[in-house]
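INFO  loader      accepted 1 record
INFO  loader      residues=946
INFO  predictor   begin
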Amino acid sequence: MLTAWRNSPTRLREDAATEADLVRAGYRDRLLTELAQNAADAAVKAGVSGRVSVWLRGRALHIANTGAPLDLSGVHALTALRASGKTGTAVGRFGVGFTAVLSAGDEVEFRSSTGSLRFSRAQTLTELRDNGIDIPVGADGPAVPVLRLAWSVAVAPEPGYDSEIVVWLREDVDVADLLAAMRAEAVDLLLELPGLHTIRIGDDESWRAVEEAGNGLQQICITAPSGEDFRWWQYTTERARWLLPMRDGRAVAAPADVLRAPTRTDEELSLPALVIADIALQPDRRRLMPGARVGELAEGYADFARALPPEDRLVLVPAPGFARSEADGLLREALVNELRVHPWLPVLADLDSDSADSASADFDAAITPPGVGDAMRTGAAPLSADVARLSSAAGPRRADAAPNRASVFLGVTTELAGLLAGLLGPLVIPELSGRACAELLGVLDVHRIGLARVAELTGSVQRPPQWWYSLYDALEPFVTDPLAAEELGALAVPLSDGRLVTGPRTVVLDDQLEEAVAVPWARLVHPEAAHELLGRLGAQQAGVEDLLTDTTLRAELDYRSDDEDLREAVLGLAAHLPPDTTLPTWLGALELPDATGELRPADELLLPDAPLAEVLIADSPFGTLDTAVAQHHPAAALRAIGVGWGFTVVTETDPTGPDHDLDDEDRWWQGLPEDPPEFAAVRDLDLVADDAWPRALRLLLSEPATRGLLADRDGYTAWWLRRHARVDGRPLGVYRAGSDPVFADLLPQLPGLSAADLAALDAVLADPANITADLAAALLEALADPAKRPTPEAVSQTHRRLAAAVPQLDLDEIGVPERVRALSGAVIDPDRALVLDRPWFGLALPPDRLVAGDIEHAGELATLLDVAAASEAVHAEVLGAGKRTTWADEPLGVLLRLQFGLPPLAGELVLHDRLEVRLTGAYEATVAVPWWRSGDTTHVQRQPSS
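INFO  predictor   done
INFO  writer      dumping C-alpha cells
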C-alpha cells in the first residue's frame, strides 16, 4: 500500500477523501449499528447466540461480541474501502461499514481470538514520513486514511468474547451522549439483527427472545434495561421480515418509520408494520439503489396478515394518506394490491349452503380448522348456538377471503353476521366490521352493504320462521330513524300459510298467536316470525278478533263458504280467541259437516250433546255437528263462529232495521224511539218447546253473553221473552220480579230459581212501569181472586198503573173482569163498585164499594173495569147554608192552603159548624165530611173554638 501511495500521490489523496466522506456522511452516526451488524454476522457464522457488550475505560470505548473471530478475508475487508469478506446470509454488503469507528476516534484496535490489529492515524503519518511520501493537507490538517494500514498487536479480546473493538475517543466526543445514543439504538438493533441475543451498554442490558407461534409467525420480545418488554409479531417472507408492534396482547400499527435493510436507512415509510428488507442499498447504506424492486417486498404480506389473530389483521392495512417518500408510495401500492387479491380477511361464509359449489368461483377461502395454532387464532367470538343452527345445516363458518370478494355490514353484530353470511357470501367478521374499520376496509375494496341490500336479498331466501325472527331481532338495533326503516321496506316476511312476501307494510301482525294458522284472506305473519320490528316497519297490528271480523273474510264466505282451507283457518284462529269474545253472525255461514256428512252453515249446527238441543221443538232446523270435527277443534272455537251449544247471540254495529231474521222483530223495532247504535239479541227463542222454558231460562242464565242480554229491559231478548215465553202456561211477563213490591201479593214468582237468577231476570218479568195486555189481564184476574190478599196501597197502585196503560192496550183483547177489587180489599161485583174520580167522594163512600187508583186516570180505570165513576153514579147535596167567604178573607182558608201546599185559590169558601152531605143514586146516605166541593165552591167544616 505504501508503494502504491508513493507511486501515486493522487491515490493517497483519493483514499483519504473517500474515507473522510464515509466518516462524515455515510457512517457519521452508525458506530454501534455497523459494529452490531458485524457482530450479528459473526454470531451467525459461528452458530452461536450473539452478544454485544459496550463499556468505557477512561477514554477508551470497548465494543466486544461473540461469534466467528477475525480471519484473513476479514483483515482484507477491514483494510479495503470497497471490498467485503461477507458472503451468503451475512447482513452487510460492504466492508466499509467498519469506517464508522473513525466517527469516534482515530486510534482503533480490532482484538480477536485469532489475532489483533491496530489502526492508527498517528502511526500512518509516521510511516508516510519515514517512507518519504508526501502527506496531503486537508481543511483539518494532514489528510490520511486511517484504515488502510494495520499493525498486528499482541492483545486478546475481553474474556468471554471472541472479538473486541477498542476506540480511543477523540477529545471532541461527548461520552455521555455517545452512550445514550447507543442505549437508544439497542432495542432497534436487537429487532433488526436476529443474530444478536443481547446488547449491553455499560450496566444496561437489553435482550431478545423469540417464540414460535405457528403458521410462520413468531413473537419477538425485547426486554429493555428498565424491565419493560417490547413485543412484535414477526413474519418472514422471501424478501423481507415484517414486524408488527403489540400492546396489551393486541397488534397495533407502527408509527411512521424508515426502511430497514437490515438497519435503518433514510427511506421514510408510513406503513403499519416495520419492514426489514433484503434490497440493494447505496454504499452509504442510507438510500436505495436506483431501480431497486421495491414492489417485490410486498410478496407474502397477505400471508403475514392471514397468520395473525383474526381481530388483528386489519392493522396491517396501510391507512389512507400521502406517501412519505417515493419508496413509500411504491411499497404502499404494492402492499394494498397484495392484500386485495389474496385470501386473508376473516369472514363468515355459509360454505355448506346451496351456493357452496360456486364459492370457489366467487372467492378464494380457506376454512380455519378449530384447534390450529394457539388462542391467537381463535380470538374472534363464536357464533351463538341458535344462529348457527338456524343459518344452515352446519351454520356459517369462519374462513379467509380475498377482500375484493368480501362484503361488510358496518357495525354488524355476531347474531346478525351469522344470519347474513348465507345471504351475502363471505361477510367480514363482526370484530372487524366496526365503523373504526370502515376506512381500512374501503382501502381494500371490500364491498359495503346496507339495510336496503339486506332487504333485497331476503326475497329469495327459504328459511324456517325462527330464522326470520332471529333476523328481525338482529336487525332491530340498526333501525334508529325513518331512513333506516325506509331502507328495509323490501324486507321479506314469512306468512303463516307458508308464503314469503315482500314488504312489512303489506302484512298483518298478531304477536299473540302461538302457532301458525294459514289465513288465505290476509297476509298474516307466521307467529314464530312475529317481531315488533315488523310493526315499526309498517306491519298492521291485527289480533285474532280483527282477522275474524275482516270484511275480506266475509267476502270469501259469500262465494266459497264450503272451502276446507277457509274452514281450517277460521277455526284455527277462533281457537285463540279470548274468552267471551263475540264475533259477527255472518261467520255462521261457514259450512261444516253434520252428523250425516252433509255440509251445513255453522249457525245451523249444534255441538254433540249441546244442552240447547234438549229445549228445542222436535222439528227444529238444527243439525248436529260431525263428531270428528267436534273432537278436532275446541268447543269454544266452534261456538264462537255460530255452532250451537247454548243460545246464540246475534250482534250488529249501527243496525238499520229489523233484518236479523228474528221472530216478531218488526214489532219490537216499531216500538223503538230510534235505531240503536248496537244490536245484540238471542236468536232461536221461537224454537223453544212450550214445556221446556224452565230449562231454557236456566240455559240462558248459564251463559254470560245471554245472561247479560236478559238485563236489557228494552232489548229484543227481554221484550220477546216477556211476551212469548211461557212457564206453566203463563207468559214470563206476568211473573213478578223479585225486586217488585207493587205486585207482591198479586203475581206469582218463577219457581225453582235462586235469588240471584231471579234478580237477573227482572227485566224479563212483570214490569210495573210497562203494562202489557197479558200483564193487564193477569193483574185483573189476580185482583178478582178472593184468595189474594193485597194491601189497599197495592190495590191502588195496581189500579193506577192499569189505568195509565189503557191508551196503549187493546181492551177487547183483555176483556171485562167479572169481579173487581175494592179499596178495602173486598172482591165485589162491578155493578156495586164505584171508581173514585173525585177525592172528596172518598170521604163519603164506603171503602168496600170504592175502586181507587189515581184521580188523573179514574176515567180510564172506569172504562177498563166497566165500572161507574162515583161522581156520575152518586148525586151529592150539601146540607146547610154555612158562612160564605173567600180563601183570602178567612184565616182557616189560608191555613188550609199552607197545609196542603196549594197556590192562592179562587172560588168561594163556605164554612160550616157541621158539614153534612146527602148522597143519592147508586149509594144513598147522609154523611158528615170535613170538606166537600161543588163546582168552584169549597165547603169546609169550621174548627170548634176553644
